[in-house]
Write a structure and sequence with these properties.
The chain is of the alpha/beta class and 294 residues long. It folds into two domains: 218 residues, Alpha-Beta Barrel (TIM Barrel); 60 residues, Alpha-Beta Plaits, CATH 3.30.70. Helices cover 32% and strands 19% of the residues. The strands form three sheets. Strands 1-6-7-8-9-10-11 form a seven-stranded parallel β-sheet. Strands 2-5 form a two-stranded antiparallel sheet.
Amino acid sequence: MRFSLRDGPGIRTTVFVKGCNMTCKWCHNPETLAMRPQLMRYPDKCLNCLKCTRVCKHGATVTAGYGRSRRVAFNFAECKNCGECADICYAGALTMSGKEMSVEEVMAEVVQDINYYKNSGGGVTVSGGEPTVQLDFTLALLEACRKEGISTAIETNMLADWSVFEKLIPALDLVMLDIKMSGADAHREWTGTDNAQIIENAKKISKQLPIIVRTPVIPGVNDVETEIEKIAGIVNSLDNVAYFELLLYNPLGESKYQALGMDNIFEGQRPQSTDRSARLAEAAKKSGKEVRVG
């Protein structure tokens, strides 16, 4: 994503890698959870040209109805994510999320905006998914950016062995990390893992690099002042915090769940109100850091 203004300082290019080691139930980028390329389906764009039914060898796209009422029917269970149907779908009703790229191919796009990075204090942010899941690629890309004089950052959940971050630190200028919840049990319930390693890693990395701490504010999960105060206490224990940001719930991922044929338990939820977010921001100030709401 070029010309990003939300993934670190200045104008940035954000590189999203697929694959994540958490299963956050509210994930607004569900297309990045699996490492493999995935087919995404947008029926509203379908022109019923039926070309996809002729190229699919697995029975995922078939025809339903007769005569003029014939239409495309899709079976996610049979889809092998081969991408042949997406290749011939000129309407964009079938698209592939994710493709294999080399570091050189990514850098060819990144360097196009090098002057914008330098003039704005921006750079490249590797996000996901979770960048540490594809450690070799992430590290090679960050090192390639540094060779071009491009500032580097990652967005990470901090769930990895400390040795992983030791490898990344020399190639980084900034770490943007999540503290999602304060309690281990609640963290395990909503993300699939507890947060002990995450908090320990956050403390270690904050002693070596500037960090931005983010908390996604999720309805019915952590959007109460008492929980935000507890998270703020954790943030208060960290060094080199540029600011603490509350990320209000983002419903824009709903269409992605539908496109992937995935269940979404937060369907229909909306961002917190202005009054509610103001109260949560006040609670976040217990961190003793600058607080932002986005």
